[in-house]
């Protein structure tokens, strides 16, 4: 291709970029608690973004949070409806606790405003379905806030699976969690968090493996949840009185494609880990060391088990450095998708299955038997 043609193309790209960056992307923050701080900080790192509004149902909370960041011109409201009704917005971050994920998200979608929704998607599958249906009718999209998706080691897991090095996958063991690490605040009450360890960190470990294998549909779930540590003052002090969610969950899940998923997650237990993640395929297997946190990277170098010329061999997959912060990448991917009309970076069509498993675990645990996962038509 001639230089003239190439520079013509370059000029067009530059013009488009200029046009896009000229006008600031106007964003509103709904829910100004703990995680909103990471959203604010990452939006402030984007030169083409302006935080124009914030809302929190606790009077004065949004204003105080904005002032803490020197954002004295941000208009503050005491409901998500007031913020959305009174502002011209290019996008919103929904940073409310889990029980309040659905309403602000649907309210924004009904007004064609793109949503970056914090994880977990929702508390129940029904709520997730309602959001997906609202999204289908809307011109806007929802991206679910799984920042580990942007970690190079997480991407490596997917690359290894997609390379065919493991062959067809038939069994996955995943999960992890903490020996003692029950959070406080709104995470531990049914009326706000709705789900505990399952929603806080379980959704991440599910996403890690399900995303790697292309998000097959869950078919059946045998689930278990408990709260022995959260409800016990010996382990959870004063918070034991108000603790009303799970602190441990486990499940045996059948996925489409004849794949078995063996899952366990913990905010608190006696051992240090319920085991590493193992992805077993017909040609090889991958071991991913467990991590206790689950909102960032993998727990250490991974091992690929395979046969080489008839001999059993192991290849260590070293940890890869990710340039820049994962949260900044999550925010940037949302802004770019909204500005340039790209698909949602972490689409609800995938995370619906993640939520169906979490919902299935709770339903099965309540019934004390295996359940069939029924996902209504969107
Ligand atoms: N991605 C991550 O790494 C990460 C980390 C922590 C928390 N989270 C998720 O972020 C969400 C919020 O967690 P948090 O720790 O910030 O909770 P939080 O309780 O500190 O903050 C939530 C805020 O939302 C407000 N709120 C509730 N309903 C509202 C509504 N309809 N309109 C406006 N404000 C409303 C509450 O008053 C509260 O101030 C949770 O879903 C959690 O799972 C994600």
Can you characterise this structure?
With 378 residues, the chain is of the alpha/beta class. It has 2 domains: 3-148 and 329-346, NAD(P)-binding Rossmann-like Domain (Rossmann fold); 149-322 and 354-372, Dihydrodipicolinate Reductase, domain 2 (2-Layer Sandwich). It is built from 11 helices and 15 strands. It has helices at residues 3-22, 34-44, 61-68, 80-86, 102-109, 125-137, 152-163, 197-212, 233-236, 326-340, 348-367; strands at residues 25-30, 49-55, 75-77, 91-94, 115-118, 142-145, 169-177, 218-226, 248-255, 259-266, 277-281, 284-288, 302-308, 311-317, 371-372. It has a 9-stranded mixed β-sheet. A 6-stranded parallel β-sheet has the order 3-2-1-4-5-6, with helices on both faces. Strand 1, helix 2 (34-44) and strand 2 (49-55) form a beta-alpha-beta unit. Helix 2 crosses helix 10, helix 7 crosses helix 8 and helix 8 (197-212) crosses helix 11 (348-367). Residues 1-19 have low confidence and may be disordered. Bound molecules: nicotinamide-adenine-dinucleotide. Nicotinamide-adenine-dinucleotide binds at residues 30-36, 55-58, 61, 79-80, 95-98, 100, 103-104, 118-119, 145, 147, 185-186, 200, 295.
């Amino acid at each position: 291709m001639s230089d003239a043609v190439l520079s013509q193309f370059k000029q067009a790209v530059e013009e488009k970029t200029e046009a896009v960056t000229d006008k600031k992307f106007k964003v509103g923050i709904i829910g100004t608690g703990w995680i909103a701080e990471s959203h604010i900080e990452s939006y402030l790192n984007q030169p083409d973004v302006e935080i124009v509004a914030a809302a929190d149902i606790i009077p004065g909370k949004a204003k105080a949070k904005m002032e803490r960041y020197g954002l004295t011109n941000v208009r503050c409201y005491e409901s998500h409806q007031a913020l959305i009704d009174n502002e011209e917005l290019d996008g919103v971050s929904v940073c409310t606790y889990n029980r309040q994920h659905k309403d602000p998200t649907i309210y924004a979608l009904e007004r064609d405003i793109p949503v970056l929704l914090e994880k977990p998607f929702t508390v129940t599958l029904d709520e997730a379905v309602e959001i997906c249906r609202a999204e289908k009718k809307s011109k806007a999209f929802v991206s679910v806030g799984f920042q580990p998706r942007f970690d190079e080691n997480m991407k490596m897991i997917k690359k290894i699976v997609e390379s065919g090095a493991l062959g067809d996958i038939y069994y996955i063991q995943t999960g992890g969690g903490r020996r003692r690490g029950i959070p406080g605040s709104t995470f531990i009450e049914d009326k706000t968090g709705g789900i505990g360890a399952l929603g806080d960190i379980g959704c991440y470990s599910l996403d890690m493996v399900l995303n790697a294998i292309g998000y097959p549909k869950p078919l059946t779930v045998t689930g278990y949840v408990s709260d022995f540590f959260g409800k016990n003052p010996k382990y959870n002090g004063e918070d034991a009185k108000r603790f009303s969610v799970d602190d441990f969950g486990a499940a045996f899940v059948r996925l489409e494609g004849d794949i078995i998923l063996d899952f366990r997650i913990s905010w608190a237990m006696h051992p240090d880990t319920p085991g590493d993640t193992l992805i077993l395929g017909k040609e090889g297997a991958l071991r991913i060391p467990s991590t206790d946190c689950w909102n960032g990277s993998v727990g250490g170098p991974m091992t690929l088990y395979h046969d080489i010329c008839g001999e059993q061999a192991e290849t260590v997959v070293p940890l890869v450095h990710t340039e820049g912060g994962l949260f900044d990448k999550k925010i940037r991917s949302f802004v770019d998708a909204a500005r340039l009309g790209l698909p949602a970076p972490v689409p609800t069509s995938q995370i619906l299955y993640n939520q169906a498993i979490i919902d299935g675990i709770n339903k099965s645990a309540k019934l004390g038997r295996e359940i069939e996962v029924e996902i209504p038509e969107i």
